[in-house]
TrEMBL record, chain A:
Keyword Nucleus attached: no
Protein family membership: Belongs to the ERD2 family.
One GO term (biological process): vesicle-mediated transport
Keyword terms, alphabetized: Endoplasmic reticulum, ER-Golgi transport, Membrane, Protein transport, Receptor, Transmembrane, Transmembrane helix, Transport
Topology in membrane: Multi-pass membrane protein
One CC-aspect GO term: endoplasmic reticulum membrane
Pfam families linked: ER_lumen_recept
Protein name: ER lumen protein-retaining receptor
Encoding gene, per UniProt annotation: 109417765
Length: 212, 10
């Protein structure tokens, strides 16, 4: 565990908490893509199957449980409790266009062809693109509430911090995982446009609004 | 052992 990894994990945790607070406080999930949230739930479940096979540390186990539980809590709030506020019409991204290619890619490019490893690899590929329905929703509506922007910023920062963690681990431990590094780089690149808008607008107290 | 890969990250 190094400082980048810890900061990345905490940023990830903060993102999830911000999202739950936004939905709970405003009693609304307007502006949040349920499609992205479904994809994140698929990511956590397929990645953390090793909860039952491998024990790494108490920290690791607890964080995995928090990520899985909170993602299902988010889905419950969006699709059951505050269903009426869900922005159906704008959240029209077809997730099968992400799920299928990621699965095929995981079957083709993986570290070892075992069910757990293929599912882990699938989750890494899917996580890289899981935010696309959310970014698509923001671009369709042309704006995002400030707490939604903070959520997206924390969520994007997490993988960017992991990139620093991987650089650190390569030099400090000789450890590297090319699949995670490439997918993590793509994931971070997808947020760049948003990062730019966040820094130039939201941090200056303006609403995140896309140019018409 | 590549077959029993341990993923220690989240």
């Amino acid at each position: 565990m190094n400082i980048f990894r810890l900061a990345g994990d905490l940023s990830h945790l903060l993102a999830i908490i911000l999202l739950l607070i936004k939905i709970w406080k405003t009693r609304s999930c307007a502006g949040i893509s349920g499609k992205s949230q479904i994809l994140f739930a698929v990511v956590y479940v397929s990645r953390y199957l090793d909860l039952v096979t491998t024990f790494i540390s108490l920290y690791n186990t607890l964080m995995k449980l928090v990520f899985i539980t909170s993602s299902f809590a988010t889905l419950y709030l969006m699709y059951v409790k505050f269903k009426a506020t869900y922005d159906h019409n704008h959240d029209s991204f077809r997730i099968e266009f992400l799920l299928l290619p990621c699965f095929v890619l995981a079957l083709l490019i993986n570290a070892s062809f075992t069910p757990l490893e293929v599912l882990w690899t699938f989750s890494i590929y899917l996580e890289a693109v899981a935010i696309l329905p959310q970014l698509f929703l923001v671009s369709k509506t042309g704006e995002a509430e400030s707490i939604t922007s903070h959520y997206l910023f924390a969520l994007g920062s997490y993988r960017a911090l992991y990139l620093l963690n991987w650089i650190y681990r390569y030099y400090a431990e000789g450890h590297y995982d090319l699949i995670a590094i490439f997918a993590g780089a793509i994931q971070t690149i997808l947020y760049c446009d948003f990062f730019y808008l966040y820094i130039t607008k939201v941090l200056k107290g303006k609403k995140l609004q896309l140019p018409a | 052992n590549r077959d029993q890969q341990q993923h220690d990250e989240l």
